[in-house]
Amino acid sequence: MLKSSRLKYRELENSDFEIFYEIYSSDSVMRYAYLDKYESREIAMLDFEKSLNMQNDGCEGTQYIALLKDSDIVIGIVDYDVEMLHHGGGVCEIGYFIKQEYWGQGFGAEMGKAMVDYLFENSPIHKISASCNSINLPSENIMKKLGMSKEGVFKKARFKNNRWEDEIKYALLREEWERQTKYLISACLVGVNCKYSGKNARDEKLVKLMEEGNAITICPEVLGELTIPRDPCEIQKYEGGIVKVTTQSGRDCTKEFVLGATKTLEICKIVGVKKAILQSRSPSCGYGKIYDGSFEGKLVEGNGLTADLLSKNGIQVFNENNWQEVQEFGNAD
User: Fold this and answer.
1) In the beta sheet, which residues pair with residue 216?
2) I need a labelling partner for 65 at 20 to 30 A (CA). Which of 11, 161, 212, 281 fits?
3) Of 122, 150, 121, 119, which Cα lies nearest the Cα of 134?
4) What pLDDT digit, counting tens, does each position of 130-179 carry?
């Protein structure tokens, strides 16, 4: 199913006619759309039933209702149509229709990205396109935000408002999507002097990944408002499952580590990060193995606070030593 930070989605259902009609009969929503708004419920019902039949077929396309996560309020519809599909790939066109009261809040790009990611991750298609009226600049800007490139202007391709109007078409190839920012990297691994010692753990391959535009960098401990340099910390585990992060002298830094982890997750959701390459053994970024809390360099099984939070929220976590062993460079599932 489609996923994004502020919205949840479900397929159009038999009980959704009123939502369907409200959106597609709106003057504002349909002002620049390829099709005219519905003038009657009878015609809308025919198309509604046709849309449901297309979804049941499974080979033509699907419409998804977009709802606010915190209130279940419907804000719009995002859909795709299959233009071509066979064993060697395929082409889909996506569309997004948002109620006017939710314009200007970034929902179009969020819905579009959710659809693009879903289609590339769950189907063999190699290309996704989108189109808009040539004077619909907000819609064109959404296509740009999705990383699409302009394929051309089709002159007088749409009959709208009693005149023929130009259409702009954008598209994104699978290989272009795969090159988009997909990784979060611990900042110290690309040469930022943000370790507790004030030094870094620069890895040239990860620097290259960042320079190619495939990653963003973050230091969770700095996001948690800890200083550089700072006293080294390790995770302490107590009876009852209580976990704290402390310095060797016993100063409790748990609050700062939790804050850094939370901020890191928020950024991942906004940017759309799906994979993280984090500094091994760290009380923030360590994954699989961390120091045991004795400050004697001993390792135990476990995760740092940030690594653990990202993993629990569906983000794949690797370290600087295993990320290439687990996945093909820059192009992992």
Assistant:
1) 184
2) 161
3) 150
4) 999 999 999 999 999 898 999 999 999 999 888 999 999 999 999 888 77
* Nearest of 11, 34, 46 to residue 136 by alpha carbon: 34
CA dihedral angle for residue 70, residue 76, residue 81, residue 87, rounded to 10 degrees:
-10
Which residues lie closer than 8 Å to 282 by C-beta, 6 or more apart?
186, 290, 304
Q: What is the DSSP string of 25-38?
A: T-TTTTSSSSSPPP
pTM score over 0.85: no
Q: Quick check: helix, strand or coil at residue 314? A: coil
Q: Which residues contact 203 (CB under 8 A, 6 or more apart)?
A: 189, 190, 320
Q: Which CATH number fits domain 7-178: 3.20.20.80, 3.40.630.30, 3.40.50.970, 3.40.980.10?
A: 3.40.630.30
- Which helix (H) or strand (E) segment holds residue 276: the answer is strand 275-278
What is the separation of C-alpha 216 from the centre of its chain, rounded to a whole number of angstroms?
13
Q: Are residues 309 and 261 in contact, defined by beta-carbon separation less than 8 angstroms?
A: yes
- Cβ within 8 Å of residue 317, ≥6 positions away: 275, 276, 278, 287, 303, 307, 310, 311
Q: Where are the alpha helices (DSSP H) in 93-219?
A: 107-122, 137-145, 174-179, 204-211
Closest CA to 90 of 127, 131, 130: 127
pLDDT in tens, 73-106: 999 999 999 999 888 899 999 999 999 999 999 9
- 322-331, long-range: CB < 8 A, 24+ apart: 323/277, 324/205, 327/275, 330/178, 330/179, 330/182, 330/209, 330/212, 330/214, 331/178
Sign of the alpha-carbon dihedral angle for 28, 33, 38, 44: negative
Task: Report the distance separating Cα 312 and Cα 323, nearest Å.
Answer: 18
Q: Break the chain into its structural domains and give their ranges.
A: 7-178, 181-326
Separation between Cα atoms, residue 135 and residue 133, nearest integer Å: 5
Are 224 and 257 spatial neighbours (Cβ–Cβ below 8 Å)?
yes
